[in-house]
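Hi U.,

Before I forget, here's the chain from the pilot set. I'm dumping it here mostly so it's searchable later in email.
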Amino acid sequence: MIAEKWCIFHVPNYIDPDAKSGSHVRPPKMIDAFKSIGYNVDIVMGYGSTRKKQIDRIKAEIKKGKKYDFVYSESSTMPTLLTEKKHLPLFPRLDFSFLTYCKRNNIRIGLFYRDIHWKFEDYKSKVSLPKRMVTIPFYKYDLKKYEKIVDVLYLPSGQMAPLLNKYKIKKVDLLPPGAVYNGDIVEQRNKYFKSRKEGPLNIFYVGGVSGIYDLTEVFNAVFHTNNAYLTVCARKEEWEKVKSKYTPFLNERVKIIHESGEHLKKYYMKSDLCCCYFPISKYMSFSMPIKLFEYLGFVTPVIATGGMEAGKFVQKWDNGFCIDYDDYSMIELLERINEDQDILLEKHKNSVTCLMKNTWEERALKVVKDLKGE
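Structure:
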């Protein structure tokens, strides 16, 4: 009889199942991935009162002799102690006390450190000084606790590691987002690209359209390329705020939609290219957008900015096009693809290879190998 395998999944905040940001998308994907590779998962997640009940139950199980292979935790975008609805430290010892308890019981701990946006100017411009005076010490407190508790600190990208040099983390490794493998989708997309005739290029983008996600050069390139069509899916409220900036580039070849979830599938299934093409910034230099891996799930070639973390990923796997961010590079790229559209099939095939090595299950298997030694 094969013994059951158990792990603990810990997130010190409430996860909204309807939210689209990476901080809410990633935890359920990782939970599903651990289950997919054969683990039973005891979950600590939610607001403080809920987590306390879950923690008490797990501690009782450990005292009874239940064996857990490891704890996998993911940080919040907020400091751990400020994740309640009103961001007050109502449960100041709950999470770190629990992780310390696990460590004392010889359960190894891996923690995904999601973001370090609080170190950048963009954070200062969005968060008032009084609030920063509260949050930043709490962010630093998290890292000091990680020094003592965490066996492996996972980061979304290697560019983030130097920002943590002052902290004595035992081991730092990479655990970027993963992609969902769907055999039917891969098969349909294979047929699409293999039977595709030369014609208009269909470009699809999902996500923000302001700030670090400025799409001006994408709109500009499509406007100046007669054989390119662009569909942008953005939140309606955000689009209404910034659409005047994009108005000069709007024509019959540009479509703006406000869809989500399964409604996006029909757009992905007829897309030739997807975009992670944004202005160069310090933040984007280490950010690994979760949308890049959503694109990968539909094995669609990606256009990404050279030098940025997403661009390095595309360059490594050759599953798209990594280009400079300027007034001409994307225009030149679209014209080059128009002249030799067979290259799309080549990039699609590379996307399939890339997908197989970058699923959520592959991320979960890495955690198991690191923390359990399998």
